[in-house]
Amino acid sequence: MRFHFKTGYDTDIDLFPDWWKRGLYLALLVLALSLPFLLDEFFIGEMTNVLIWTVSGLGLMLLTGQTGQVSLGHSAFMALGCYACVMMMEAGVPFIPAFLLAGVITGLVGALIAIPALKLHGVYLAIATLALAILADDLIVLLAPWTGGVNGKYAPEINIFGLVIDRWSTPDYYYWMVLAVVIGVTFAYRNILRSPLGRSFAAVRDSEISAQAMGVDIARTKTMAFGLSCAIAGLGGALMGLFAGAFNNETFNFLIAIQLVMMVVVGGLGFIHGAFLGAVVVAFLPQLLSILTSSFGRGMSVPGLETGVFGFLLILFILFEPMGLYGRWLKIRTWAELFPFARKDMFKRQKSYLKTERLR
Length: 360
Fold this sequence. Notes:
The protein is an all-alpha fold. It is built from 15 helices and 4 strands. It has a single domain, classed as Orthogonal Bundle (ABC transporter involved in vitamin B12 uptake, BtuC), CATH 1.10.3470. 70% of the residues lie in helices and 3% in strands. It is globular. One of its GO terms (cellular component) is plasma membrane.
């Protein structure tokens, strides 16, 4: 067992609590950078897909996991980020400015939508955002002169300082590009959490009334959370559309938003690691189901199997492990550190809640 002795505020907000964690994450980074030399093109593509889902999942995690606001409409913001990035690239804007501006535009639109939407709570907010996701599908079709409608658009060539990056011809370069985005988003996410704004997010999540009593501006905090969340989701949507090569209104349907919710719940709601673990499940589960159906079903396709399995997993985790995969790992690690003094009911779920929350 390792003990962390905090001798100042800088120690308390340090990105890495000790040398062990710093070395561990450095080793993971080296492993991630070396994957193109260890895997073939198929698995490099799958790992790229995992990283893209991770970016989108971090966007929803910031809103749902850190601020406690449920959104079922992040697929709409992913679509906005994708179309904004591609249209700017088609207009002659280089990839890096177009990519970053797509995130900014998506964040601003998300913040504007959040002003009326975040007056709602709980299931009403979820329904409102779900309606937004369904509406986005129709808007893409109606704005066919710009979006291509049902015919969609083709992703333009990515050129970064003269280096052409393509998913098929240079999958390793594409993987490293997406990995750089993941590292940047994760670093920004972690720094937001240790800032006063991040502490406000946690206060609003735990109790809006208590946060308001402590001087937190609830409306501003929620709007900032929604805007930042949409900006990150827009970056993930841009990467997803460029990775697909061709996309239309069907690419970003509301089922993508449902998968995002399942991803953050299964991975571990409120944990950065949960977005990574959930992305692995979302990206590799369809491949696993395809292998199983081809092996035991003699090539038969089962309609709705993937959606059914996703829903079943979500129900299981909500009932038996609401902290997700990363929460389960934390429990196992804590039990091992305290063995043989760990108690059986040490991780028993608390059923109590603040009585002040009944007034909402």
